[in-house]
Amino acid sequence: MKNSVFFRYILLCAVFLLCSCGDVAEEERWIGPQEVAATKNVLVEDFTGQRCVNCPDATATIDEMQQRFTARYGPGHVVAVAIHGGSMAISDEYPMGLATAEGEAMHTALGIDAWPAGVVDRTGGICRYSEWTARVVSRMAVLPSVAIACEASVADEQINVTVSVTPSATSDTSLERRLTVLLTESGITALQFMPDGSRNASYVHNHVFRASLTEPEGRLLGTASAAGGTEIVSLSIPVKATWNVAQMAVVAFVTDVTGVEQVVEVVLKN
Q1: The domain spanning residue 95 has which CATH number?
Q2: CA 206 to CA 189: how far, in whole Å?
Q3: Full-model pTM
Q4: Total domain count, the chain
């Protein structure tokens, strides 16, 4: 008897649900997950170290995201910067070291004491690499409030960068905006401790932070962008002997109190 009553209950629920669906307009029905429109590029700052055995897994997460979103939306939607620092890093004072004084300062400023760690679009705080993909997808759907154009070239052992920032028509021009411009290098063969406990001296490091062309907190943008016009910033930095400019890129992004408004990555032109 109890089973009979239970099955009648299930049948009535099924009928009710079917009838209810018929009362909902077709355009209002839930039809499952929808494709995310990639309206904005997203910055992933990967705080890492050569002695960190789990850091190659975080790097693999970035590689997978870049491949997936490039295939779906085109290149440039996930911009990565690998910042070496902290107790798991090796200083660039040593031949195979990748941690710079600026990178160490970034770790200290954020209080990072466990690796790998990351920050996505400078919002939401520090997170584990298992959270990066979900955060990137969420930020991709944000409508960018500025447009950035960037050109970068090398001449006479100097890297020259010009960045143009233009707020969108709907942008809140009362916000304080800051421009940050970073140099990265890929294809660096250097030591890395691996997840299986081994040491790989032939590991290839990508998106490695080399230097900043702007102040640590970013350069405050002035009246041109605040008035809705285009602001142009020109910057330069000498080439260090340890850099391979053929493998270098410039990452330029604008932040406000909500995080990264937009980010672009361009390779250096020789």
Answers
A1: 2.60.40.10
A2: 9
A3: 0.85
A4: 1
- Per-residue pLDDT tens digits for 7-36: 444 444 444 444 444 444 444 443 334 456
Between CA 134 and CA 156 the distance in angstroms is: 43
Q: Is residue 238 assigned to a domain?
A: yes
- The answer to whether the beta carbons of residues 168 and 144 sit under 8 Å apart is yes
Domain of residue 182: give its range. Answer: 42-267
Give the model confidence (pLDDT) of 169-193 as tens digits: 888 878 899 999 999 999 999 999 9
Long-range contacts formed by 94-102: CB under 8 A, 24+ apart? 96/50, 96/190, 96/191, 96/201, 97/50, 97/190, 98/50, 98/188, 98/190, 98/205, 98/208, 99/49, 99/50, 100/209, 100/210, 100/211, 102/209, 102/211, 102/212, 102/216
